[in-house]
Predict the structure.
Amino acid sequence: MNRRYIFTSLTRISDLPDRDFQVSPLDRSSWETGDYVVCSVEKPRNQLKIELLNGRMADVSQGDLLVGAFGIRSATMEATGTWEAVGEDHKMHALTGAGLFGKMTSRSTLLPDLIPIKYRGHVHIGGMKQRMQDFLKPVPKKKYEIPTVAIVGSSMSAGKTTVARIIIRQFKMAGLSVLGAKLTGAGRYRDILSMHDAGADYIYDFVDAGLPSTISDKKSYLQAMDPVLSMMAGEDVDLAVIEIGASPLEPYNGEEAVSLIRGNVKCSVLCASDPYAVHGVMSAFHFKPDIDTGPASNTKAGIALI
C-alpha cells in the first residue's frame, strides 16, 4: 500500500492504495463531484477522526495527506457544504469522516469543528484524473426482485441503522440469509459495516455506484444506482433489509430510492424523531408504514399521538 497517503473510505471502490499515481492541481473548470483528490490537513482543533478503508476511525495530524473525493453534503442536524463553494485559497473541510471533501457552508452548534484541509491536487494515472465512477465494473442487467424490508426516517439520527441491525439480527437467528444496503445519504462505511456485524451476508451502498453522496439530479441518481440494484439482485439471499438514509424531504433522492424497491417491499418501517414527523414522512412518501419506531415512540404519549 502507498503509505505516503491516508486513504479514506470513499476510496474503497478503487485500487488507488495499491497503485502508483501522480498528484497535480487542476483548474476549477475541471473539478467535478466524485473526483479523487489529495488534501492536506491544516490545524485540526478537535478529536474528529477520518474513516479508513476498513471502516476504522483514525486520528489525523497537521500535514497528513488525505485521499478523498469532492462531494456535497446537506445534513439538517450537522453540517452542509460543497466543493463548489471552495475559494481561491483552496481551503475546505472533510465534510464527513469518510473523505467527502468540500467547503463547509453551515454547521450546527452541537457539532465540533470539521477537520480543515487544503486542496493539493487531483489524483492522476496515465495523465488522466481519477474519479469514483472510473472504478466501476460492468454489471449484467438484472431485475431486483428480493423481498425487502424498507427502513425510512424523518431525519438523520432517527434510529434507522440501529433498527436495521436489530431486524437483520432477528432474521439471522431465524436461519435466513440477508442482504443489507443503504441507498441514500452521505458516504460512511460504518453504517453498512454495522449491518454486516449484525449478520448481513452481503452489504451494499451508493458508494458502490461511484457516488460520494446521493445529492444529484434525479436522473443521474437513478442511472448511477441501476448497476447496484443489479448487483444486489444477483445475490442469493432470502430477503433484503434496506435503509433509505436521511429523509425523503432532504435533497438526497430518498423518494427515488424508494421507487427503485417499492414493488418488492413486504414490510416498511418508519423511524421518526417525533410524532408530527410521522405524518410528514407519510405524506412525502405517499405510504403508511407497517411499523413506527424511533424517538417518536419512546413514550405512551408519543404512541397515542401517532
